[in-house]
Amino acid sequence: MKRNKMISLVLSAVLLLAVLAGCGEAESSSKGGEVSSAVQTEDTSLKGSTLNLFTWEGMFPQEVLDGFTEETGVKINYVNFDFDETMLAKLEAAGGGDYDLVIADDYIIETAISEDLVQKLDPSKLSNYKSINSVYQGQFFDPEDEYTVPYGAGVQTIVYDPSLVDLEITGYADLWDKSLEDSVGIIASSRVIDGMALKVLGESYNTEDISKIEAAGQKLLELAPNIRLIKDDNTQDDLLSGEISAAVMYTSQVTMAKMQNPELKVVFPKEGIGFGIMAQFIPSNAPNAEAAYLFMDYILRPEISAKCYEFLGYYCTNKDADALISEEYREFLTLPEDFKAEKMEMIENISAEALEAHEKVWTAFKSACE
After folding, report:
1. CA 353 to CA 336: how far, in whole Å?
2. Is the pTM of this model over 0.90?
3. Which end of the chain, N or C, is more open, meaning fewer C-beta atoms within 10 Å of its C-beta?
Protein backbone atom coordinates (compact mmCIF):
# COMPACT_ATOMS: atom_id res chain seq x y z
CA MET A 1 0.00 0.00 0.00
CA LYS A 2 1.23 3.46 -0.83
CA ARG A 3 3.27 4.99 1.96
CA ASN A 4 2.35 8.65 1.38
CA LYS A 5 -1.33 8.79 2.28
CA MET A 6 -1.98 12.52 2.09
CA ILE A 7 -4.48 13.76 -0.50
CA SER A 8 -4.07 17.23 -1.99
CA LEU A 9 -5.47 20.24 -0.16
CA VAL A 10 -7.92 20.92 -2.94
CA LEU A 11 -9.26 17.39 -2.77
CA SER A 12 -9.49 17.56 1.00
CA ALA A 13 -11.51 20.75 0.88
CA VAL A 14 -13.97 19.27 -1.61
CA LEU A 15 -14.33 16.11 0.40
CA LEU A 16 -14.87 17.84 3.70
CA LEU A 17 -17.61 20.01 2.23
CA ALA A 18 -19.35 16.89 1.00
CA VAL A 19 -19.40 15.06 4.34
CA LEU A 20 -22.37 15.16 6.67
CA ALA A 21 -21.70 18.04 9.01
CA GLY A 22 -21.38 17.82 12.73
CA CYS A 23 -21.71 15.11 15.34
CA GLY A 24 -24.73 15.86 17.49
CA GLU A 25 -24.49 15.14 21.16
CA ALA A 26 -25.84 11.74 22.06
CA GLU A 27 -25.91 9.40 24.96
CA SER A 28 -22.80 7.30 25.41
CA SER A 29 -23.05 3.55 25.73
CA SER A 30 -20.87 1.47 28.01
CA LYS A 31 -22.19 -1.75 26.51
CA GLY A 32 -19.55 -3.28 24.21
CA GLY A 33 -20.52 -3.81 20.58
CA GLU A 34 -23.28 -1.21 20.31
CA VAL A 35 -22.90 1.75 17.98
CA SER A 36 -22.28 4.75 20.17
CA SER A 37 -22.43 8.34 18.94
CA ALA A 38 -20.49 9.85 21.80
CA VAL A 39 -17.07 9.13 23.25
CA GLN A 40 -17.18 7.54 26.67
CA THR A 41 -15.52 10.01 29.00
CA GLU A 42 -16.43 8.59 32.42
CA ASP A 43 -12.70 8.53 33.24
CA THR A 44 -12.19 12.24 33.78
CA SER A 45 -8.55 11.57 34.66
CA LEU A 46 -7.84 11.46 30.91
CA LYS A 47 -8.78 15.12 30.48
CA GLY A 48 -5.64 17.15 29.96
CA SER A 49 -3.61 14.05 29.05
CA THR A 50 -1.93 13.45 25.68
CA LEU A 51 -2.46 10.80 23.02
CA ASN A 52 0.75 10.04 21.15
CA LEU A 53 -0.45 9.10 17.66
CA PHE A 54 2.16 7.61 15.31
CA THR A 55 1.31 7.21 11.63
CA TRP A 56 1.78 8.74 8.19
CA GLU A 57 1.06 12.39 7.54
CA GLY A 58 -2.44 13.36 6.42
CA MET A 59 -4.40 10.41 7.79
CA PHE A 60 -7.20 12.44 9.37
CA PRO A 61 -9.16 15.61 8.64
CA GLN A 62 -8.06 18.31 11.09
CA GLU A 63 -11.67 18.77 12.18
CA VAL A 64 -11.78 15.15 13.37
CA LEU A 65 -8.62 15.60 15.45
CA ASP A 66 -9.86 18.90 16.86
CA GLY A 67 -13.28 17.39 17.56
CA PHE A 68 -11.74 14.59 19.60
CA THR A 69 -9.78 17.01 21.77
CA GLU A 70 -12.77 19.30 22.24
CA GLU A 71 -15.00 16.39 23.23
CA THR A 72 -12.61 14.51 25.51
CA GLY A 73 -10.05 17.03 26.69
CA VAL A 74 -7.27 14.72 25.43
CA LYS A 75 -4.61 16.46 23.39
CA ILE A 76 -3.10 14.76 20.33
CA ASN A 77 0.62 14.63 19.68
CA TYR A 78 0.63 13.62 16.01
CA VAL A 79 3.99 12.08 15.08
CA ASN A 80 4.69 11.08 11.46
CA PHE A 81 6.82 8.40 9.86
CA ASP A 82 7.63 7.94 6.18
CA PHE A 83 7.88 4.16 5.79
CA ASP A 84 6.57 1.22 7.80
CA GLU A 85 10.13 0.09 8.39
CA THR A 86 10.93 3.46 10.00
CA MET A 87 8.00 3.01 12.35
CA LEU A 88 9.10 -0.48 13.33
CA ALA A 89 12.67 0.61 14.03
CA LYS A 90 11.47 3.41 16.34
CA LEU A 91 9.03 1.13 18.10
CA GLU A 92 11.77 -1.45 18.61
CA ALA A 93 14.10 1.22 20.01
CA ALA A 94 11.37 2.33 22.43
CA GLY A 95 10.64 -1.24 23.52
CA GLY A 96 7.00 -0.82 22.58
CA GLY A 97 6.78 2.48 24.44
CA ASP A 98 6.67 6.20 23.56
CA TYR A 99 3.55 5.87 21.39
CA ASP A 100 -0.04 5.17 22.40
CA LEU A 101 -1.60 4.37 19.03
CA VAL A 102 0.04 3.36 15.76
CA ILE A 103 -1.51 3.02 12.31
CA ALA A 104 0.60 1.06 9.85
CA ASP A 105 0.41 -1.53 7.06
CA ASP A 106 -0.57 -5.15 7.55
CA TYR A 107 2.74 -6.89 6.86
CA ILE A 108 4.74 -4.74 9.28
CA ILE A 109 2.12 -5.23 11.99
CA GLU A 110 2.64 -8.99 11.70
CA THR A 111 6.32 -8.41 12.47
CA ALA A 112 5.57 -6.05 15.36
CA ILE A 113 3.22 -8.61 16.92
CA SER A 114 5.83 -11.36 16.57
CA GLU A 115 8.31 -9.14 18.43
CA ASP A 116 5.89 -8.57 21.33
CA LEU A 117 5.63 -4.87 20.55
CA VAL A 118 1.82 -4.90 20.43
CA GLN A 119 -0.63 -5.44 23.28
CA LYS A 120 -3.84 -7.40 23.02
CA LEU A 121 -6.99 -5.34 22.67
CA ASP A 122 -9.89 -5.27 25.09
CA PRO A 123 -12.93 -4.95 22.76
CA SER A 124 -15.18 -4.16 25.74
CA LYS A 125 -13.54 -0.73 25.76
CA LEU A 126 -14.72 -0.09 22.19
CA SER A 127 -18.47 0.49 22.20
CA ASN A 128 -18.47 0.74 18.39
CA TYR A 129 -16.41 -2.39 17.77
CA LYS A 130 -19.23 -4.14 15.89
CA SER A 131 -19.19 -1.40 13.26
CA ILE A 132 -16.03 -2.96 11.79
CA ASN A 133 -16.60 -4.65 8.42
CA SER A 134 -15.69 -8.30 9.00
CA VAL A 135 -14.25 -8.56 5.46
CA TYR A 136 -11.20 -6.76 6.84
CA GLN A 137 -10.84 -8.89 9.95
CA GLY A 138 -9.33 -12.32 10.52
CA GLN A 139 -6.46 -11.59 8.15
CA PHE A 140 -2.97 -13.09 8.14
CA PHE A 141 -1.37 -10.42 10.33
CA ASP A 142 -3.99 -10.80 13.11
CA PRO A 143 -6.05 -13.94 12.40
CA GLU A 144 -7.96 -13.88 15.69
CA ASP A 145 -8.45 -10.07 15.74
CA GLU A 146 -6.62 -9.92 19.05
CA TYR A 147 -4.45 -6.89 18.39
CA THR A 148 -5.79 -4.59 15.70
CA VAL A 149 -8.66 -2.46 14.44
CA PRO A 150 -8.62 -1.80 10.67
CA TYR A 151 -8.42 1.78 9.44
CA GLY A 152 -8.68 1.86 5.67
CA ALA A 153 -7.91 -0.61 2.90
CA GLY A 154 -6.42 -0.45 -0.56
CA VAL A 155 -7.83 -2.58 -3.37
CA GLN A 156 -5.69 -3.31 -6.41
CA THR A 157 -7.63 -1.89 -9.32
CA ILE A 158 -7.18 -0.81 -12.92
CA VAL A 159 -8.47 2.57 -14.08
CA TYR A 160 -8.78 3.55 -17.72
CA ASP A 161 -10.15 6.30 -19.94
CA PRO A 162 -12.71 4.73 -22.29
CA SER A 163 -12.33 7.63 -24.71
CA LEU A 164 -8.68 6.65 -25.25
CA VAL A 165 -8.97 2.85 -25.15
CA ASP A 166 -10.39 0.69 -27.93
CA LEU A 167 -11.23 -2.36 -25.80
CA GLU A 168 -13.20 -3.07 -22.65
CA ILE A 169 -10.72 -3.84 -19.89
CA THR A 170 -11.98 -6.47 -17.47
CA GLY A 171 -8.78 -7.82 -15.96
CA TYR A 172 -5.02 -7.62 -15.72
CA ALA A 173 -4.56 -9.72 -18.86
CA ASP A 174 -6.12 -6.98 -20.98
CA LEU A 175 -3.20 -4.69 -20.18
CA TRP A 176 -1.07 -6.91 -22.45
CA ASP A 177 -3.26 -5.99 -25.47
CA LYS A 178 -1.16 -4.56 -28.31
CA SER A 179 -3.53 -1.62 -28.74
CA LEU A 180 -2.23 -0.27 -25.42
CA GLU A 181 1.37 0.08 -26.60
CA ASP A 182 3.23 2.87 -24.76
CA SER A 183 0.10 3.99 -22.92
CA VAL A 184 -0.07 2.17 -19.57
CA GLY A 185 1.07 3.54 -16.21
CA ILE A 186 1.79 1.39 -13.16
CA ILE A 187 2.83 1.97 -9.57
CA ALA A 188 6.40 1.23 -8.53
CA SER A 189 5.64 -1.69 -6.23
CA SER A 190 7.45 -4.86 -7.18
CA ARG A 191 5.17 -7.23 -5.24
CA VAL A 192 2.02 -5.65 -6.68
CA ILE A 193 3.20 -5.66 -10.29
CA ASP A 194 4.95 -9.03 -10.13
CA GLY A 195 1.81 -10.26 -8.43
CA MET A 196 -0.29 -8.94 -11.29
CA ALA A 197 1.59 -11.24 -13.66
CA LEU A 198 1.26 -14.12 -11.20
CA LYS A 199 -2.51 -13.58 -11.16
CA VAL A 200 -2.66 -13.62 -14.96
CA LEU A 201 -0.93 -17.01 -14.79
CA GLY A 202 -3.42 -18.25 -12.20
CA GLU A 203 -0.98 -18.17 -9.29
CA SER A 204 -0.98 -16.70 -5.79
CA TYR A 205 0.62 -13.38 -4.92
CA ASN A 206 2.45 -15.23 -2.18
CA THR A 207 3.83 -18.26 -3.97
CA GLU A 208 7.15 -19.54 -2.68
CA ASP A 209 7.79 -21.41 -5.93
CA ILE A 210 10.76 -19.68 -7.55
CA SER A 211 9.96 -21.13 -10.96
CA LYS A 212 6.49 -19.55 -10.85
CA ILE A 213 7.95 -16.17 -9.90
CA GLU A 214 10.40 -16.46 -12.79
CA ALA A 215 7.54 -17.38 -15.14
CA ALA A 216 5.73 -14.23 -14.02
CA GLY A 217 8.89 -12.31 -14.84
CA GLN A 218 8.86 -13.62 -18.37
CA LYS A 219 5.20 -12.64 -18.65
CA LEU A 220 6.04 -9.13 -17.48
CA LEU A 221 8.68 -8.76 -20.18
CA GLU A 222 5.88 -9.21 -22.71
CA LEU A 223 4.08 -6.29 -21.07
CA ALA A 224 7.07 -3.93 -21.28
CA PRO A 225 6.19 -2.40 -24.72
CA ASN A 226 2.87 -1.18 -23.28
CA ILE A 227 4.40 0.54 -20.25
CA ARG A 228 4.79 4.29 -20.58
CA LEU A 229 5.65 5.11 -16.97
CA ILE A 230 6.38 3.50 -13.62
CA LYS A 231 5.91 5.86 -10.69
CA ASP A 232 4.34 6.09 -7.26
CA ASP A 233 3.38 9.74 -6.98
CA ASN A 234 0.49 11.51 -8.71
CA THR A 235 -0.05 8.86 -11.37
CA GLN A 236 -3.66 10.02 -11.50
CA ASP A 237 -2.48 13.30 -13.07
CA ASP A 238 -0.97 11.40 -15.99
CA LEU A 239 -4.24 9.58 -16.57
CA LEU A 240 -6.28 12.77 -16.33
CA SER A 241 -4.00 14.62 -18.75
CA GLY A 242 -4.08 11.81 -21.31
CA GLU A 243 -0.39 11.02 -20.95
CA ILE A 244 -1.51 7.45 -20.27
CA SER A 245 -4.81 5.79 -21.12
CA ALA A 246 -4.85 3.04 -18.46
CA ALA A 247 -3.19 2.55 -15.10
CA VAL A 248 -2.74 0.37 -12.07
CA MET A 249 -2.81 2.85 -9.18
CA TYR A 250 -3.08 3.19 -5.44
CA THR A 251 -6.59 3.48 -4.07
CA SER A 252 -6.27 7.12 -3.02
CA GLN A 253 -5.09 7.97 -6.54
CA VAL A 254 -8.11 6.17 -8.01
CA THR A 255 -10.32 8.26 -5.75
CA MET A 256 -8.73 11.52 -6.90
CA ALA A 257 -8.92 10.52 -10.55
CA LYS A 258 -12.59 9.56 -10.35
CA MET A 259 -13.47 12.75 -8.54
CA GLN A 260 -12.03 14.83 -11.35
CA ASN A 261 -13.27 12.65 -14.21
CA PRO A 262 -16.31 10.49 -13.36
CA GLU A 263 -16.20 8.99 -16.87
CA LEU A 264 -13.10 6.97 -16.03
CA LYS A 265 -13.71 3.23 -15.67
CA VAL A 266 -12.60 1.39 -12.54
CA VAL A 267 -11.95 -2.32 -12.99
CA PHE A 268 -11.76 -4.99 -10.31
CA PRO A 269 -9.62 -7.54 -12.18
CA LYS A 270 -11.37 -10.79 -13.03
CA GLU A 271 -8.21 -12.70 -12.09
CA GLY A 272 -8.85 -11.86 -8.44
CA ILE A 273 -8.86 -8.91 -6.09
CA GLY A 274 -5.74 -8.04 -4.16
CA PHE A 275 -5.97 -5.78 -1.15
CA GLY A 276 -4.01 -4.43 1.76
CA ILE A 277 -5.09 -3.08 5.13
CA MET A 278 -3.90 -0.23 7.30
CA ALA A 279 -4.68 -1.05 10.93
CA GLN A 280 -4.49 0.53 14.36
CA PHE A 281 -2.71 -1.05 17.29
CA ILE A 282 -1.63 -0.11 20.80
CA PRO A 283 2.08 -0.70 21.51
CA SER A 284 2.92 -3.10 24.32
CA ASN A 285 4.18 -0.35 26.66
CA ALA A 286 2.01 2.54 25.53
CA PRO A 287 2.14 5.35 28.12
CA ASN A 288 -1.56 6.25 27.64
CA ALA A 289 -3.37 3.19 26.34
CA GLU A 290 -6.73 4.40 27.66
CA ALA A 291 -6.52 7.49 25.46
CA ALA A 292 -5.83 5.17 22.51
CA TYR A 293 -9.03 3.25 23.22
CA LEU A 294 -10.91 6.53 23.47
CA PHE A 295 -9.63 7.69 20.09
CA MET A 296 -10.25 4.36 18.36
CA ASP A 297 -13.83 4.34 19.61
CA TYR A 298 -14.28 7.94 18.49
CA ILE A 299 -13.21 7.25 14.90
CA LEU A 300 -15.30 4.06 14.84
CA ARG A 301 -18.42 6.19 15.19
CA PRO A 302 -20.06 5.96 11.75
CA GLU A 303 -20.38 9.70 11.18
CA ILE A 304 -16.73 10.25 12.14
CA SER A 305 -15.60 7.31 10.00
CA ALA A 306 -17.42 8.73 6.98
CA LYS A 307 -15.50 11.99 7.36
CA CYS A 308 -12.21 10.13 7.66
CA TYR A 309 -12.70 7.93 4.60
CA GLU A 310 -13.88 10.70 2.32
CA PHE A 311 -10.78 12.65 3.34
CA LEU A 312 -8.43 9.69 3.16
CA GLY A 313 -9.64 8.27 -0.16
CA TYR A 314 -9.15 4.64 0.90
CA TYR A 315 -11.73 1.91 1.25
CA CYS A 316 -14.02 2.18 4.24
CA THR A 317 -13.59 -0.58 6.83
CA ASN A 318 -16.59 0.54 8.91
CA LYS A 319 -19.80 -1.08 7.64
CA ASP A 320 -22.03 1.35 9.51
CA ALA A 321 -20.31 4.30 7.85
CA ASP A 322 -20.87 3.04 4.30
CA ALA A 323 -24.34 4.57 3.98
CA LEU A 324 -23.08 7.92 5.30
CA ILE A 325 -20.43 8.30 2.61
CA SER A 326 -21.59 10.72 -0.08
CA GLU A 327 -23.21 8.85 -2.94
CA GLU A 328 -20.85 10.29 -5.54
CA TYR A 329 -17.86 8.73 -3.74
CA ARG A 330 -19.46 5.56 -2.42
CA GLU A 331 -18.74 3.37 -5.44
CA PHE A 332 -15.00 3.68 -5.01
CA LEU A 333 -14.78 3.96 -1.21
CA THR A 334 -16.88 0.89 -0.41
CA LEU A 335 -16.63 -2.66 -1.70
CA PRO A 336 -19.39 -3.89 -4.04
CA GLU A 337 -21.91 -6.07 -2.24
CA ASP A 338 -21.01 -9.14 -4.27
CA PHE A 339 -17.37 -9.10 -3.12
CA LYS A 340 -16.54 -12.06 -0.93
CA ALA A 341 -13.48 -12.45 1.27
CA GLU A 342 -12.62 -15.77 -0.38
CA LYS A 343 -12.25 -14.00 -3.73
CA MET A 344 -9.65 -11.62 -2.33
CA GLU A 345 -6.00 -12.13 -1.49
CA MET A 346 -3.52 -10.05 0.46
CA ILE A 347 0.17 -9.70 -0.29
CA GLU A 348 1.91 -11.31 2.68
CA ASN A 349 5.44 -11.68 3.96
CA ILE A 350 7.35 -14.37 2.07
CA SER A 351 10.75 -16.03 2.37
CA ALA A 352 14.01 -14.23 1.65
CA GLU A 353 14.60 -16.53 -1.33
CA ALA A 354 11.23 -15.69 -2.87
CA LEU A 355 11.81 -11.98 -2.24
CA GLU A 356 15.16 -12.17 -3.98
CA ALA A 357 13.48 -13.79 -7.00
CA HIS A 358 10.92 -10.99 -7.07
CA GLU A 359 13.65 -8.35 -7.02
CA LYS A 360 15.44 -9.98 -9.95
CA VAL A 361 12.18 -10.13 -11.91
CA TRP A 362 11.38 -6.52 -11.08
CA THR A 363 14.83 -5.24 -12.05
CA ALA A 364 14.71 -7.02 -15.40
CA PHE A 365 11.22 -5.70 -16.10
CA LYS A 366 12.13 -2.09 -15.33
CA SER A 367 15.16 -2.32 -17.59
CA ALA A 368 12.98 -3.65 -20.41
CA CYS A 369 10.61 -0.68 -19.97
CA GLU A 370 13.34 1.95 -20.35
Report:
1. 36
2. no
3. C
